[in-house]
Design a protein that fits this description.
By secondary structure, the chain is mainly α. It contains seven helices and three strands. A hairpin with a 2-residue loop joins strand 2 and strand 3. Helix 2 crosses helix 3.
């Protein structure tokens, strides 16, 4: 039997003897937690619909235009200002505007994928994700994680986001 980090949560969902009907002579038998169930549960906690989507997006194997999930979002970001766009080109234009926001256009903002959409966020939003705007990986990514998808910079930032979500309560999206 395999044990994974989400086994405790999944075990809580298993039927117990107290859940059995009063007329039952036998308590339901608990079956072992399957790896597939653990992977899907972890993927949903990270803002994906399931493990195949998480594997494709985090591994840089998804195609442009695919649903990128809510990995780059956390519920505590809901109250923060961000600009959402249906098309990547619109988001890129917004990112390039705004020299008034810093010494170089968009230097304090980045473009993130969100589902089938695109959002421009600032350092406050990134801080809530456990990330820093000053990280050099943002520069290598051109401050656009859609264009940088699958690159070394993408992988580095995904790793930071994963580590931050493990150490911060409510650090991952639970809205998918």
């Amino acid at each position: 039997m395999r044990v994974c980090a989400c086994s405790v949560r999944l075990d809580a969902l298993k039927p117990t003897a107290s859940d059995a009907p009063a007329t039952s002579l036998h308590a339901p038998q608990a079956r072992p937690t399957r790896l597939r169930e653990c992977l899907n549960a972890v993927a949903r906690e990270l803002g994906f619909s399931g493990w195949p989507q998480a594997l494709g997006v985090l591994g840089g194997q998804a195609s442009r235009g695919d649903d990128m999930g809510a990995f780059w979002h956390a519920p505590r970001c809901n109250g923060l200002l961000s600009h959402g766009f249906a098309r990547h080109e619109q988001a890129r234009e917004c990112l390039s505007l705004g020299a008034e926001f810093g010494p170089a256009p968009g230097c304090h903002r980045v473009l993130l994928p969100y589902g089938w959409q695109f959002v421009i966020v600032d350092d406050h939003y990134l801080r809530e994700l456990g990330l820093g705007i000053a990280d050099e990986a943002w520069g290598r990514a051109g401050r656009d994680l859609v264009l940088a998808f699958g690159s070394a910079a993408w992988q580095a930032l995904c790793g930071q986001r994963l580590r931050a979500s493990r150490s911060t309560p409510g650090g991952v999206a639970s809205i998918v």
